[in-house]
Design brief:
This protein has a single domain (2-88), classed as RelE-like (YaeB-like fold). The chain is built from two helices and five strands; from the N terminus they run βααββββ. It has helices at residues 7-23, 27-44, and strands at 2-5, 50-51, 57-60, 66-73, 76-84. A five-stranded mixed beta sheet has the order 1-5-4-3-2. It is globular and about 35 Å long. The mean pLDDT is 95.
Amino acid sequence: MQARFTRQARAELLAQTRYYENLRQGLGSRFRGEVEAAALRAAEFPLHGKASAGGTRRRLVNDFPFAVIYTEIAGGVLVHAIADERRPPAYWLARLPE
């Protein structure tokens, strides 16, 4: 099982990694590791994530106010967003395919 990231989700991951790394050395790496761990857990157990808008599921990221938003695909999950819990809910809905 694998977790694939959309272009927008990858951009969010990289931007937040840089942000946390600028706050404190090593924090960005820790953030990225926690996001990747959450995505891999989602891939292994896709139905364990809480049902969310647009037919997606969400899995919280340990120690950070973020959630991995994904849908199940053959062989794993497709991550649509690394959603900041402080942003308006479902800001990422427009990213989902019709």
